[in-house]
Amino acid sequence: MAGASGGALAAQATNGGGFGFISAGYQPVENLIDELSLARSLLETRRSTETLPIGVGYLGWLLDKMPSEESESLLNAALTANVQAFWFSFGSDLGRWIRHVRENSSAKSPLVFIQVNSLEEAIYAVEILKADIIVAQGIESGGHGGNYAPPLYNLLRDITDHFSVGSSHKPVVLAAGGLANGADIAFQLTRGAAGAVMGTRFLLTPECKYTDAQRQALIAAKSEDTARTLAFDHARGTIDWPEGIDGRGLRNDTVSDFEQDVSLALIQSKFIEGTRMQDRKRFLVWAGTGVGLMDHIMPAKEAVKELHQECAQQLKLSNVKK
Question: Among 99, 113, 250, 261, which residue has the fewest nearby CB atoms (within 10 Å)?
Answer without folding.
Answer: 261
